[in-house]
Design goal:
heterodimer, A: mainly alpha, two-stranded antiparallel ribbon, B: Alpha-Beta Plaits, 2 domains, 6-stranded mixed beta sheet, 11 helices, 38% helix
C-alpha cells in the first residue's frame, strides 16, 4: 500500500484543522471572557506610556512617540496571546483536562494535535492583532495599508511564538515551572526588543543578544516599518529569523511532545 | 479476514528500568467480551495502550484487525472505541457537543453525528442532560457519557479501562447492563478491571495478569473449577481450629484473619466444627473468582 506525499499532507491538514476547530469552539463558548482583554490591555499601555510618558518625549527618529510604540504594542499583544495560549492553555489541555489523550484515541496523530495547538495559538495572536488594529485605526495611529499587511503577518508571528511556547509546555514538569519562561523570556522580550525605545540605545552586546535571542525584536521592527511607513534596515534578517524560527521550533515542539506523550 | 480481532504473541513493553508487560500472548475473537484482570501495576493498562496504538511495543508481535499498530495506527484507531480510566471529557463543552465534536475526529458527517449522538444519549439514558456542562454530571453519568462517546464511531472493538472504577453499586449495575446489551448486539469488547465480581459477571473469557505476565486464561467458571474445584468453608483464624484441623488431617489455607478449607463436603465439615467449638462463626460458600485470584496473586498489598 503506497500513499503519496500529497495525500498524507491532505490527511494531516484535515486532522490539524479538526484540532484547531475544537479549540475554536471552546473559545466561542467563552467569547465574552476571551474577547475583552485583548481590547483593554493595549488601550492601557497606549494611555499610560504613549500619552503619559509620551508627553515628555517629542518624537523618535521623526516619528511621534505614540506612533512609535503603537506597532510595538500590537506586536507584544500577538506575542502574549500566542505564547500564553500554547504555554498555559496547551499545558492545561494536556495535563489537567487530558484532552490530548482523548484526541490520541481517535485517528488524529500527535503531530496533528501539536500543529493544531500551535495554529490555534497563532489564531489567538491574530485575534489580538485584529482588535488592536481597530483601535489604532480609529485613533489614526497607524497606516491603514500597513495594517492590511500586518494582519496576515501577525499570524505568522503567532505561529513563531506559539511554537516556542509549545516547546516549553512539552518539557515543563508542572504548571508552576511555566512561570520561568514567562518571567525570564517573555518579560525581558517585552522590554528589550526595541518596543518602548530604539534598540540602538542599548549597549552593543545587548543589541546583538536581542537580535539573536529575542524574536519579538524582529516582529517589532517589521511591524513598525509597515505601520509608520519607515524603512526597516535589517528586514531580510528579520524575515529569515522569523521563518527559520517558526520551522525549527514547530518541529522541535512535535519532537518534545512525542518524547513526553508517546511512551 | 482473520477471525481474531486482537492477536498478541510474546508482546513486551519495557521502560528504562521496568518491564511493564513481559512477553504475553493472547487473542480475542470477534463478538467476545474479554477481560484483563489483575492487581494495580500488573500491566493491564499498558497492554491496552499498545492495542490502542498509543504506546509502541518493545518486542513481540501484535495485530489488531490483522494490521500492525506500528504502521497502521490511524486505520486501526478509526475502528476502535476507547473508554479511558480517567475522565477526559471536554469540560468546556456540553454533553451533546462532547459527542458531536468527537465525531469530527473520525470523519463522521454532521447529520450522521447528530443522529448518533441523539441515539446514544437515549441508550445511556442521558437525553435529559443534553445541554448540561460536564462539571454538573455525577460520576456515573460521566462514565456513561464516556461510553457513549466511545461508541460514536460505531467501533468494531470497544476497549474499556476500569469501566466502573469509583462508581456506586447502582452506577456499576447500570454500566454492566449496557455492556451486556452491547455484547448481545455482537460488539467485541475488551475490558480491564480489578473487580472480581465484574469480571465474573461480564467476561466470556479472561486472563489474570500479575507482575507483567499472564498467569492463567479461561472462562470465569472454568477457572474456578480448575483452581478451586470445590466449595469453601471459612472460619475465623484461631490456634484451636488450626490444631483441630491438623489433628483430623484436613489441609487449609490462611488468608488475613480467616482460615479457608476447600472441600466437596462443606456441610459435614461445618457440622464437625460447630460440634467441636460451640461459638464458632462459619461460612460455607462456593469457590469464586476471588479465591482463584488471591490464590494466584497472593495477598500482599500493591502500590
Amino acid at each position: 500500500m503506497r500513499i503519496k506525499i500529497h495525500e498524507i499532507i491532505g490527511i494531516m491538514f484535515i486532522g490539524v484543522s479538526r484540532v484547531w476547530f475544537r479549540n475554536a469552539l471552546v473559545f466561542r463558548r467563552n467569547i465574552r471572557v476571551n474577547l475583552i482583554p485583548p481590547f483593554i490591555e493595549p488601550l492601557l499601555y497606549l494611555g499610560a506610556i504613549g500619552f503619559g510618558i509620551g508627553a515628555y518625549i517629542t518624537d523618535i527618529e521623526g516619528v511621534p512617540y505614540i506612533r512609535f510604540i503603537a506597532p510595538a504594542i500590537l506586536a507584544a499583544s500577538v506575542m502574549n496571546a500566542s505564547f500564553f495560549e500554547c504555554a498555559y492553555g496547551t499545558y492545561v489541555r494536556m495535563y489537567y483536562q487530558k484532552t490530548f489523550d482523548a484526541l490520541l484515541a481517535t485517528p488524529i496523530t500527535i503531530q496533528e494535535v501539536i500543529l493544531g495547538e500551535i495554529f490555534w495559538g497563532a489564531t489567538r495572536g491574530l485575534i489580538s492583532a485584529l482588535s488592536i488594529s481597530i483601535v489604532l485605526l480609529l485613533l489614526g495611529l497607524a497606516s491603514p495599508v500597513g495594517l492590511l499587511i500586518v494582519l496576515p503577518f501577525s499570524f505568522l508571528a503567532g505561529v513563531l511564538f506559539s511554537s516556542i511556547a509549545a516547546c516549553f509546555s512539552a518539557v515543563s514538569p508542572s504548571i508552576d515551572t511555566m512561570s520561568y519562561p514567562a518571567t525570564l523570556f517573555v518579560a525581558p522580550m517585552f522590554l528589550f526588543s526595541g518596543t518602548f525605545f530604539p534598540l540602538h540605545l542599548l549597549p552593543q552586546i545587548v543589541q546583538v543578544l536581542a537580535l539573536l535571542l529575542l524574536p519579538l525584536t524582529h516582529v517589532v521592527s517589521l511591524i513598525r516599518g509597515l505601520l509608520t511607513e519607515t524603512s526597516v534596515p535589517l528586514w531580510a534578517f528579520n524575515i529569515s529569523w522569523i521563518v527559520m524560527g517558526t520551522i525549527i521550533f514547530s518541529f522541535l515542539a512535535i519532537r518534545l511532545f512525542k518524547r513526553r506523550l508517546v511512551v | 479476514m482473520s477471525r481474531y480481532v486482537i492477536e498478541a504473541k510474546d508482546l513486551t513493553k519495557r521502560y528504562r528500568d521496568l518491564t511493564a508487560v513481559d512477553s504475553i500472548s493472547f487473542s480475542v475473537t470477534r463478538g467476545e467480551l474479554f477481560g484483563f484482570l489483575g492487581p494495580n501495576g500488573a500491566g493491564k493498562t499498558t497492554t491496552m495502550k499498545m492495542v490502542q496504538c498509543v504506546s509502541p511495543r518493545t518486542g513481540g508481535k501484535l495485530r489488531v484487525f490483522g494490521d500492525d499498530p506500528e504502521t497502521s495506527g490511524r486505520i486501526i484507531r478509526k475502528r476502535i472505541g476507547v473508554v479511558p480510566q480517567e475522565t477526559n471529557l471536554d469540560p468546556d463543552l456540553s454533553v451533546f457537543d462532547n459527542l458531536t465534536v468527537y465525531a469530527r475526529f473520525f470523519d463522521i458527517g454532521r447529520d450522521d453525528a447528530l443522529k448518533r449522538a441523539k441515539n446514544l444519549l437515549e441508550f445511556f439514558e442521558l437525553e435529559g442532560k443534553k445541554d448540561t456542562i460536564i462539571e454538573k454530571l455525577s460520576g456515573g453519568m460521566k462514565r456513561r457519557l464516556l461510553l457513549a462517546r466511545a461508541l460514536m464511531n460505531n467501533p468494531d472493538l470497544l476497549i474499556l479501562d476500569e469501566p466502573t472504577i469509583g462508581l456506586d453499586p447502582q452506577g456499576r449495575h447500570h454500566i454492566w447492563e449496557k455492556l451486556l446489551k452491547l455484547r448481545a448486539e455482537g460488539h467485541t469488547i475488551v475490558l480491564t478491571t480489578h473487580y472480581l465480581d465484574e469480571a465474573a459477571k461480564l467476561c466470556d473469557r479472561l486472563v489474570i495478569m500479575d507482575h507483567a505476565k499472564i498467569l492463567v486464561e479461561g472462562s470465569p467458571d472454568a477457572l474456578v473449577r480448575t483452581f478451586i474445584g470445590m466449595d469453601i468453608v471459612e472460619t475465623d483464624k484461631s490456634d484451636q481450629v488450626t490444631r483441630y484441623l491438623d489433628s483430623i488431617n484436613i489441609s487449609y489455607g490462611t488468608g488475613g484473619e480467616m482460615i479457608q478449607v476447600r472441600t466437596d463436603k462443606p456441610r459435614e465439615l461445618a457440622d464437625r466444627l460447630t460440634e467441636q467449638f460451640r461459638e464458632i462463626r462459619i461460612i460455607t460458600r462456593p469457590g469464586s473468582l476471588e479465591d482463584v485470584f488471591l490464590m494466584l496473586t497472593g495477598r500482599g498489598l500493591r502500590e
